[in-house]
Design goal:
- With 148 residues, the protein is an alpha/beta fold.
- The chain has a single domain, classed as Rossmann fold.
- It has helices at residues 19-27, 46-52, 76-79, 95-104, 130-133, 136-147, and strands at residues 4-9, 35-40, 55-61, 71-75, 112-117.
- The protein has a five-stranded mixed sheet.
- It starts with a strand and ends with a helix.
Length: 148
């Protein structure tokens, strides 16, 4: 049996950065054929988690330079093509850095999908901005399609 993960990333103390963790909390009310993992701000240990699954859907707030609440879906391979100077992740050691380290170790991330939402507010606080919170149902529907 293949192991599918849904991995929520983020820091719930930095408003919109907590999106991934808040989505994971809501997924506990849904029946999915996947293991739901709260990755919070795991940093480099994400590499072992990504390597352990046959398929992973990562949910996170991502800085894409787009309007707040913009929802995107892309592959890890697409993320790995971003220029080095692009500050995509909101974490000290983010997903991009973990993927690049794995790539340098010849890891294969063909089955890693990222679902991201552009944040509006990354100041201290536990509430999501209205634009980001409004996207949670869309994120959950997209996750269901991915793990279907």
């Amino acid at each position: 049996m293949s192991r599918t993960l849904v991995l929520g990333l983020g820091n719930t103390l930095l408003k919109d950065d907590g999106l991934g963790v808040k989505v994971i909390e809501q997924l506990s009310h849904h029946s999915l054929p996947a293991e739901i993992v709260n990755g919070a701000t795991l940093g480099l240990s994400l590499l072992e988690i990504l390597k352990s699954a046959e398929r992973t859907v990562v949910v996170d707030a991502v800085d894409m330079g787009r309007p707040p609440g913009t929802l995107v879906r892309f592959s890890a391979e697409e993320l790995l093509t971003l220029p080095e100077s692009r500050n995509f992740s909101l974490h000290e050691i983010g997903l991009l850095e973990v993927l690049k380290i794995g790539q340098s170790l010849n890891e294969d991330f063909k089955n890693v999908i990222i679902i991201g939402v552009q944040p509006r507010d990354l100041t201290y606080g536990e509430e999501l901005s209205p634009e980001v919170e409004a996207r949670i149902p869309d994120v959950i529907e997209l996750i269901k399609k991915e793990v279907g």
